[in-house]
Amino acid sequence: MDYQGQQEQEDEVYGGDLPEEAYMESDFDSSADADAAAAAADDKAKELENMKKRLQEIEEQAGALRELQAKVEKEIGGAAPEDSTGASAAQAEKEEVDSRSIYVGNVDYACTPEEVQQHFQSCGTVNRVTILTDKYGQPKGFAYVEFVEVEAVQNALLLNESELHGRQLKVSAKRTNIPGMKQYRGRRPNPYFGSGRPFMPGPPFYSPYSYGRVPRFRRPMRYRPY
Fold this sequence. Notes:
Order of helices and strands: HHHEHEEHEEE
Number of strands: 6
Number of helices: 5
Shape: flat
Oligomer: single chain
Structural class: alpha+beta
Distance between the termini: 163 Å
Largest sheet: 4 strands, antiparallel
Strand content: 5-15%
Helix content: 40-55%
Radius of gyration: 54 Å
């Protein structure tokens, strides 16, 4: 009796009859949560697939860049020995030509290559005569004579200080210029400094006036009677 009264009192407090268990279970639907979880899993799978594709593209680009770099390095490495070989061959050829050539200085400005060739014809077979000119086409006063034989250079040196057009020639063997190096030329002595004599100070000079004072020159006054 007491138990039934207590249960009825509790039902009145909570607003009437309690719902049945079957009705409460029918209100809860778990299919929506399952669909959401499946959609999230699909999104993650797609994102992972996209990341894999991007990584594969990056690796392909890096491989192409490595191949291009290796190709460029191979071309540069293959061209450098050829250039060095060609430069050494050109330098050797120039040295061989210079060994058969002479320098002729103090050449008259009106002298022609034919006249220079005739002057050195007795030394050997002249292959070429070059008279240097400036940018205006005027002769610089010296020339180079190239012979066919190397022995002709020694014969040409015997014509040093010989005259051509009334001028004394300066004949010497031509030297080979090395690229990137200049011939050292000593400095000309300064006639106003470094004459070789030690510096000797002169006698001291004393001013007739005291220190800091300068004589004051006054203008002479004219006589004015009025």
